[in-house]
Design a protein that fits this description.
single chain; about 230 residues; alpha/beta; 8 strands; about 40% helix; about 15% strand; binds pyridoxal-5'-phosphate
Amino acid sequence: MICENIALVRENIRRATEKAGRNADSVTLVCVTKGRPPEEIKEAIRSGLCDIGENKVQEALAKYNALRKAQIKWHLVGHLQTNKVRAAVEIFDLIHSVDSLKLAQEIDRQALKINKVQDVLIEVNTSGEASKFGVRPEETPGLIKEATGLKNIRLQGLMTIAPIAEDKELARPYFKKLRELKDEINKFLLTTYDLKLTTLSMGMSQDYEVAVEEGSTMVRIGTAIFKGEKR
Ligand SMILES: *Cc1c(COP(=O)(O)O)cnc(C)c1O
């Protein structure tokens, strides 16, 4: 089941890239495994996935230990509290959810301690929904300017979560907004800091095709991969 689901998701991604005139390999599929046991994650890995996403540090730690030997890139896609940063920096290859300068500074501080340069994305609240984490779009360039001074984090791009909707087309404006924000930020990053954001983490089971059409380079998918499994 998991194997077939992954094949279907891959095919849908390929089609969406084709529609947008992009390369199919320009999109990384992050398998979001929250609530799923290590055996199912192993099956996803056997199907060729090497990017695993979790939304809680504690849960990720347990799985990290169970799957230690697998060649996996670990992604933190959920909100990160400052008191969990130390553990997060130890296991995650990419943190998708930086939403304040204070959090960026703490990641920088903990990464320095273990001699790591931590890859991060800035989470942007493109919809303005009060229930969502993330920086407001208009505050994002300012946060990025300040974060460029932190030597032990590497700003790779932006992440967003679109509002839940029956019709995936309704998510399109939020994805478009994130892409335009990245382009706007890259104008000053390139000229002033010789830096460039390359990653757009956007698209989940309900809306990833639309996200890919709008330029997503990283989709985060759980339900569409694990549906039909027992739990
Ligand atoms: C759970 C989660 C996902 C995956 O959602 P699905 O709808 O199951 O594909 C993606 N991103 C974040 C931040 C999540 O918490």
